Amino acid sequence: MLPFTIEKVTSVDAAIAAASSGRRLTAGGTTLIDLMRDEVEQPQQLVDINALPLSDIRIDRSDLVIGALARMAEVAAHPDVQRLHPLIAESLIEGASPQLRNMASIGGNLLQRVRCPYFRMLDAACNKRNPGSGCAARDGLNAGHAVLGTSDHCVATHPSDVAVALVALDATMRVKGPKGERTFPVEELFRLPGATPHLEHTLLPGELIVEVRVPGGPDSRRARYLKVRDRASYEFALVSAAAALDVADGVIRGARLAVGGVGTRPWRLRAVEAALIGKVPDRQVFQAAARSALEGARPLSGNHYKLELLPRTIVRAFEMTGGIA
Predict the structure, then answer these.
(1) Is the whole model's pTM more than 0.90, yes or no?
(2) Is 320 exposed, middle or buried (0-12, 13-18, 19+ CB in 10 A)?
(3) Is 38 inside a domain boundary?
């Protein structure tokens, strides 16, 4: 790890000023410090933002509001989260080890960088780390890489579990920066790689995530997160699915679905959702709808198995919601 300085700020405005000047903000540090050890990231100045008043977890009318500095463990254990949004609690528990959940913030989790091994190998070609150098994963070891949203320049999957749940639930986020505040869907935070995979999110220079807001709804309590991985303990998803159903009088009135482990960003599958509306929920209906999940998929040499695993995961996630008539 290269030498660096660190300072502490106690106000949002001070954090924005620090970020605007090029200094790196850090909270839990569970991704950044790891990358600094590998010299993938080499910031010279860090700014500790843990003292900012951004860690509240509350219910505002029917919405769940989560401060950007709330820890993963705190959110997962919060009684209102478990009662009203079990999907979020489940995705957080599945997303990291207990030690990491105690440190990692919600804002940091959403902004964490990819876990592609070539990104962390300084002698490998990686357009995220070194724009224009190439993508070693395309012709390398790519069993864990994306099949949706890829480009010739990058095939890395987005690593966050809770981001998948938040996208499925139409969560929004409030950010504050030098030009004021703005609010937008969490889904719009994440960029597709295209020809510029080093540009991973849509935050403007100096902007800071303030809070995440999750709307309540009839499907929020009938929702589950299913994560398929190589081992049961701490591991990133091969395929994951955040599924929610609104069933009344034996008919599906609403459906939500986002998947992880297969896309270069959390991947909302609106065609699958639309195919379920008005149907009586059963395994055959879920299977038929899940076929459209593969539209636009571009498998690599090592990850063809995801084309079969993805629909199976979707079907099982919807079954787990308890929506079978």
Answers:
(1) yes
(2) middle
(3) yes
